[in-house]
Design brief:
Largest sheet of chain B: 2 strands, antiparallel
CATH topology of the largest domain in chain A: Rossmann fold
Oligomer: heterodimer
Structural class of chain A: alpha/beta
Number of domains of chain A: 3
Radius of gyration of chain B: 24 Å
Number of strands of chain B: 4
Strand content of chain B: 5-15%
Structural class of chain B: mainly alpha
Helix content of chain B: 40-55%
Number of strands of chain A: 11
Bound molecules: flavin mononucleotide, iron/sulfur cluster, FE2/S2 (inorganic) cluster
Strand order of the largest sheet of chain B: 1-2
Distance between the termini of chain B: 52 Å
Number of helices of chain A: 17
């Protein structure tokens, strides 16, 4: 069970507000605490009104890229089709970040309500909540919650007497890291092998079985439910102006580890404080890995960077899986970059050349550098190859897979340069 | 020709002598299993379609990728005008005519084709019926087939391809992609797991990749990493 970190009393908790419920699948208790008020409001507002509310709130996707949620919904609603789908992405690809599973376990109704609102806004009659097959507790609770919500008429054949139908299904999926990527997830749901598709057309235009599909991270959906209940203005009051609201992070450091709900724009220093990874008087961590396996490795000078989409991008990292790792003072950042690059190369799907061969070559460069056998051209090769992969990649995985090494090159140049000097050949064995 | 007579001979002998004193490299297979990539997805073979024809489009991708150029390939362009060719001419020569016929929309029986381990197909048929012969329910079909037979026999995969209309290559590719599906009877896997060289804690490719990553993070944080799981098939 993942540890829930205590956050300061004044912090808003749109995602984990009901997390302390004794039985998260108890529908009556959840409804008393506000569950499905947002859906009722959405039905009253009509689809266009619900969409307008989400747009006014400025909600951005929590799955990593921070895409404007209302734009996706609008595109899906405007694309002519006989059917539309909503897919909730609760796959949680990064094995080091259990944020989505924690949300599904603690408040399944929040996610279900969000799914229903998205379906209402775009006119979908079927929805799938995809969950990593190993998260059995999350799946069990979701299934129980879906049954109760259907019985109460929040979903099912006649959503809140609106005359609209909505079938929601939980689908356990298992496979590679890549399965979290939206086009790959859709492939898995179609029963095909998991490889990404070229975008555009975006899934919102041509998604599951060729129909407009809104793929949304489970946190994004739960936040949409909160927005309809509490109003766009209340949401805008949380977080930072460019990225309102909160997000779940999984923090790891010497002081401990756990999941916390933090307002976007909170500094990384404050977030680390939640696990005691950065005790006020203690030493700073040497480096911060932000964004999961394809995250950026940032130096301690950037501890005051706001944790938010655009600021992290500018710093050479990304929100990614919501994972933040604070390394100890002994950590070797070049070796850490090799570890991450190896993971990304092993998990690349193999569909395209930058993916299949580019990531492998990156890994080889990292291995050579760490083994003390760099080639004189390796620094240039690393720069060129990374630029080529970013320019020619099919999906975001291979593009982001360049981040660990390029961020080390940007921030830890002396350490990298020291390793770029070949070690003198050991004397030949006698 | 070298300026110093006999230098070539000396060089050759020197190489022999050097190799003679180098440590011997002997693979103790099968006692010590070979190190394979964690993402290895199974058999390496050309696939057949339901007519027994090799499913190869002669796109040359594999011939080009092969580092020792051991794959030869011949084919015809789509109008049947130009013969195209890659590689040394001894191998794969018969592909030429076949792909020309295939592109003309006809199928060719392959003399080398024979059925894989025959099984009783009744159970697959029942599963297909249950799933409405719907290729969109492929993972469900594959899962049920594995439950019925204990693994995914090739003959069953072929039947699924035939019954759903999905290409065999697609069915096969899907089946290799997902961790929980396997192509060997579980009895073999169990025997391998309990073998003294591998120990009981054998792990799949993905488990090893994830464990490597998580223990690496622990190391960077400064916590003692957990021991890595051993490899399974
Ligand atoms: C390699 C890779 C892995 C991803 N894994 C996940 C994941 O586990 N969960 C998730 O919600 N989004 C993941 N995404 C992002 C999705 O592609 C997609 O952008 C997201 O589900 C959209 O939802 P949002 O707009 O609510 O963020 C991943 C993307 C990539 C490139
Ligand atoms: S790569 Fe080309 S030659 Fe190789 S199997 Fe595929 S189609 Fe046939
Ligand atoms: S991981 Fe293969 S194309 Fe992106």
């Amino acid at each position: 069970m993942t540890n829930l970190l205590k956050t300061p009393a004044g912090w808003p908790r749109p995602l984990l507000g009901r997390a302390s419920a004794k039985d998260p699948t108890d529908l009556d208790a959840a409804v008393k605490a506000g569950a499905f008020d947002g859906l009722k409001k959405a039905v009253k507002l009509a689809p266009a009104g619900a969409l307008a509310e989400v747009r006014a709130a400025g909600l951005r996707g929590r799955g990593g890229a921070g895409f404007l949620t209302a734009d996706k919904w609008q595109l899906a609603a405007a694309t002519p089709a006989d059917r539309r789908y909503v897919v909730a992405n609760g796959y949680g690809a990064d094995p080091a970040a259990r944020t989505d599973a924690v949300l599904l376990e603690r408040d399944p109704y929040g996610v279900i309500e969000g799914v229903a609102i998205a379906a209402w806004a775009i006119g979908a009659d079927s929805a799938i909540i995809a969950v990593r097959a190993t998260e059995t507790e999350a799946i069990r609770r979701l299934e129980a919650a879906l049954g109760a919500a259907e019985e109460a008429g929040f979903i099912g054949s006649d959503v809140l007497d609106s005359g609209r139908e909505l079938n929601v299904e939980v689908r356990p999926v298992q496979g590679a890291y890549m399965l979290g990527e939206e086009t790959v997830l859709l492939k898995a749901l179609e029963g095909k092998r998991g490889q990404p598709e070229q975008r555009p057309p975006h899934p919102a235009e041509r998604g599951l079985f060729g129909r407009p599909t809104v793929v949304q991270n489970v946190q994004t959906l739960a936040l949409a439910a909160w927005i309809l209940r509490e109003g766009a203005a209340a949401f805008r009051a949380i977080g930072s102006p460019g990225a309102p609201g909160t997000i779940l992070v999984h923090v790891r450091g010497a002081g401990g580890a756990g999941v916390a709900e933090v307002p976007l724009g909170t500094t990384i220093r404050t977030i680390l404080g939640l696990v005691g990874a950065k005790a006020p008087a203690g030493p700073d961590p040497k480096a911060l890995l932000v964004g999961g396996p394809s995250g950026g490795i940032l130096p301690a000078d950037l501890l005051d960077t706001p944790y938010s989409f655009d600021e992290l991008r500018a710093a050479g990292a990304h929100i990614g899986s919501g994972s933040i790792v604070a390394t100890g003072p002994q950590a070797d950042v070049v070796e850490l970059a090799e570890l991450l690059t190896r993971f990304c190369a092993s998990e690349a799907c193999g569909k395209t050349i930058p993916c299949r061969i580019g990531t492998r070559r990156l890994e080889e460069i990292a291995v050579r550098i760490n083994a003390g056998t760099p080639r004189p051209t390796d620094a240039d090769l690393l720069t060129d190859l990374s630029a080529d992969i970013v320019a020619s990649g099919l999906c975001d995985h291979e593009r982001l897979a360049t981040l660990p090494l390029t961020s080390v090159m940007r921030y830890f140049r002396p350490e990298l340069d020291a390793k770029l000097q070949p070690v003198a050949e050991p004397a030949a064995a006698h | 020709m070298s300026l110093i007579p006999g230098l070539g001979l000396v060089k050759g002998m020197a190489l022999t002598l050097r190799r003679f004193f180098q440590p011997k490299v002997t693979n103790l297979w099968p006692e010590v299993p070979a190190e394979i990539s964690p993402k290895f997805r199974g058999r390496l073979q050309l696939l057949y379609d339901e007519h027994g024809t090799l499913k190869c489009e002669t796109c040359f991708q594999c011939a080009q990728a092969c580092p020792i150029e051991c794959i030869d390939m011949g084919g015809m362009d789509t109008k049947g005008r130009y013969a195209v060719h890659w590689g040394a001419s001894e191998t794969y020569g018969e592909r030429r005519e076949e792909s020309a016929l295939r592109r003309a929309g006809r199928t060719v029986p392959d003399v080398a084709y024979e059925h894989w381990s025959p099984i009783d197909l009744g159970q697959v048929d029942a599963i297909l019926h249950e799933a409405d012969h719907d290729p969109k329910r492929m993972l469900e079909i594959l899962g049920a087939t594995q439950e019925a037979y204990g693994y995914l026999p090739v003959a069953a995969l072929k039947r699924i391809s035939f019954g759903t209309g999905a290409w065999y290559a697609m069915v096969y590719g899907t089946a290799t992609y997902y961790d929980h599906l396997r192509f060997q009877p579980p009895s073999q896997a169990t025997a391998a797991t309990s073998s003294p060289t591998r120990g009981p804690a054998a792990a799949t490719g993905r488990e090893r990749i994830e464990a490597d990553y998580l223990s690496g993070l622990d190391g960077a944080i400064g916590r003692a990493p957990k021991p890595r799981p051993k490899r399974a098939n």
